## 1
Amino acid sequence: MPDSTIRTAPLRTLFLVTSMPVGGAETLLVNLVRRLDRDRVVPEICCLKERGPLGEMLAGEIPVHAEFIEKKSDFRVVGRLARLMRDRKIDAVVTVGAGDKMFWGRIAAWWAGVPVVCSALHSTGWPDGVGRLNRLLTPITDAFIGVAERHGRFLVECERFPQTKVAVIPNGVDTDRFAPGIDVEQLRHELGIPHAAPVAVIVAALRPEKNHELFLEVALRVTRQVPEARFLVVGDGPERERLETRARQLSLADCLTFLGTRSDIPALLNVADVNVLTSDNEANPVSILEAMSCATPTVATNVGSVSESVLEGHTGYVAPPGDADRLAGWVVELMNNPLRRERMGSAARQMVVERWSLDAMVHGYEDLIAGLYEKKTGVVLDFPERLPEIANTLEVAAKPEPEPEMEALEPALA
């Protein structure tokens, strides 16, 4: 084979987002780009709008480009993005989420002649619903990335993407950082939680689709059966003021605390006896995987691919969306049964380690991008072998220590 068909240089890959606020998908992207093997993929990030706090943080580590669009109908964004892609000699573009970045990013990549064009999606509805215009660009898209098996089927059956173009790369968490056994006595004291009080936590951005109002209704019902119970709301967002008002109206002020964005999510998940998620739509929520990794069982609405991780009676319980009574019943059940909590938590931890490690997700992206590049260009990539060698994207490999900068900002929101 001629030398001209072999490439040893890593693939320059541009991840295109709207911005990088503190949120679940953005935190996932930070973890991904930090862990990518620089012998295989060299990442850059492009924000259509401002960088946001996580973008500013990453700017000290990798190129983070920003401010490419002035308004929704700013058609000149295509030229600006294409110019960036040519100047940076980009080999692959991955748009993250639906909406404008998915549309303009793929058009610009096509215009710039980028060999590989992918779209990663993280939900089964708003804000990741794919509209008609984005579907029209399916022919110029090499892969649509789902985050769970059921999510992949959703992309085929509901979003109507070709099955041959849908790839599933499960979300992954750092199972070393998110682990059980953290000493949390001092944290419980700081939070004003009595020693024996059971705790339920929700970790999610305060946005409408997360339906925190349902969590408040669940808390109200739980306190009627477990008066000593305490509730933690971790995360921030546009719904905060309204939710705080609603909590006061429900007389929950003495047992429920809004903590905002926190840097100690693993410790908070160790404080909790039950993790709760009340979303109206999800795909494969990272907050559930992080709770499972900390051996904390979950009670959640049965939306998206939640039931792939929250196995009924094994790692937690699910209930129909909006069903406060059923959700509260399961929370009470777990609060009153420590042995069941421990059994479910251990099963949850084992399941995450086996199926949803951060390294498995990273290798999935590396392999997908490399495979598409070889297929599209005919070039053979000659990269160093991984150590330890990974047979498939679901095997678990050793992981380095977590980055201290991420611990300072990471909210790990769903």
## 2
Amino acid sequence: MTSSTVGADTAVSRGSAPARPAIAGGNIAVAAAVLALLLAAMDATVMGTVLPNVLGDVGGGSGGGYAWLVSGFMLAQVAGTPLAGWAADRLDDRVLAIGATLVFLAASVLAGLAGSFGVLVAARVLHGLAAGAIIVSSYVIVGRVFGPERRAKAQSMLSMVWGVAAVLGPVVGAAVTEAWGWRWVFFVNVPLCALVVVAIAVALPGRGDAKAGQGQRSGFPAAEFLLVTGGSALLLVGLQGGSLGLGAIGGAVAAVVGLVALALLRRFGGGLVPRQVLARTPSAGAALATVGACVVMYATVTVLPVRLAASGTSTTGIAVVVGLAALGWVAGSAIAGGVVAKRGYRPPLVVGSLALTASAVLSATGEIAWLAGMLAGIGTGAVTATTLALIQDQSPPAQLGVATSAATMLRNIGSAAGVNGIAALSAALATGPGHGQDNRAFWVLAAVAVLTVLVPAASAPRRRTTTG
């Protein structure tokens, strides 16, 4: 029922003598993958901190064009993620990991040297492509080194990285900018990327010719790639229609077209998005729960602080809410990994969904904002760590890469919907008559948590199974 492991476990199966060096090498490679993921995750959060300094130096602040520094990164990541998943199932793990890290290094140099706004946007697009590949590569490396038996607990460690990055990104960005200027926010990536490349090249066990690309000789699914990237990009653009100058109608049209394109994957998918994610299977429920959890989390850490600021909450108080959400994500991920390994998928999913629902209700009532933030983080950490393990476990070993990229794409869609969709809904309700209209958006968020996270969690498999 379980597939054979690689890396450390492979060394053990071949004899006791090489086991310790193989395990040590695998651990070093995993540490390098964690560092690479941390760099990619922090790069997604740091721009908000340095943006005023950047615009003052290279321009781009007029007409809302600065939004492309964030949106360009996100859209490129959407394109890079499925491509990296497809490549991960065909190339040696070292090739993808080193290649993605080198592109990230080059993008960091380009961003640090950028003399114009256009060059900086191009660098951010390159950053997004590389970040999408790094994220997939990191999860695939950990999944293969530890194997199905230990995968859930190990993957929870990577899920913790997102919470750490949410805290460290803005803090490190502000500190580096204050000390040396905003360009060094990107330059500091260079030696760290070099360290990742060396560690992976030396320590990561090879998959071997028999493993790499086994049964994966078909051509690149270009039509499916266009549906995945085009649909996701249109959906993200539609959700950000206001900041990108599309207006409400243009944004709505783009989002609807994007959803239609993604819906077509049920008929034409399989090469980049595993079919079990699109059919009525536990993986499909996990996919829906992933989106819903990220919607609640990112709405909580972006829309709720705006409302708190409008009600007179201090900057410190708002920072506490966001910080507790990030720390909660770390804690939820750490706990979920151990629970999945011992008790299966359902318990952490149910607990996480209840935490997310309670968080949305607290936000809607305006009570105990710090607890709302903490519960959002705990719930998101527990749900996303568990759903990733479920999606990977239910995918054949030969599709581990595309399964991981699909989970990453779902997180991106959920985060964009949480940031922009709930913000737009809150703004629309606030223009209507009556008092307390802003709270209605959070009641909608509570309904989203119940329908998209709690319902799939209640029907998730009790026992953990793997395909292979």
